[in-house]
Amino acid sequence: xxxxxxxxxxxxxxxxxxxDPYLTPLERHAVATFAETVRRxxxxxxxxxxxxxxxxxxxxxxxxxxxxVGVDPSVxxxxxxxxxxxxxxxxxxxxxLRSDELRTATPIAIIARFSLIHVPxxxxxxxxxxxxxxxxxxxTVLIACQTTDTPGEAEFDHxxxxxxxxxxxxxxxxxxxxxxxxxWRMISRPDADHRFxxxxxxxxxxxx
Length: 208
Description:
This protein is α/β, with parallel strands linked by helices. The protein has one domain: 3-Layer(aba) Sandwich (Rossmann fold). Helices cover 34% and strands 25% of the residues. The protein is built from 6 helices and 9 strands; from the N terminus they run H-H-E-H-E-H-E-E-H-E-E-E-H-E-E. The mean pLDDT is 95.
């Protein structure tokens, strides 16, 4: 499992600085659209919130009627999540889903908001392949990340851990190679709270 010493050290400060998991209405709308898509599908089962942090989105999706498991490699972030949302389930794991609790899980959907930015380019395809093996056809993924205006990927100076921005077309192509077809994307421009453009990109597990 990938540890997150930076997030462990800054967990309390993070919770204080970001009590709301959404910085903009668009972010909130993207997650709500994801939840509605999952609810309307014929699939029933758990949704994984990969990189759940302090648990705000996990709680929001649970409130929307989904069965959600929050997943994060940071012990301290999970401590805060469990204290703030004691009725919800949280598991210590990373995007590779290798913990004993999740190794055999079959999620119907996965959401990863600003967590796959910490997966190096050489490892991203492996992560997406794991998700493709687990999620049934028709299942949904939503990935949010800082993006670029130029093709490919670019490492950036994240305050906590090494991180990469990914162009929406590059991310979509990586998903397609792992068996997912893009269904929509939302892109926002930099502002007072965002140094870079952001993308929220949703895709469905290919049926054939």
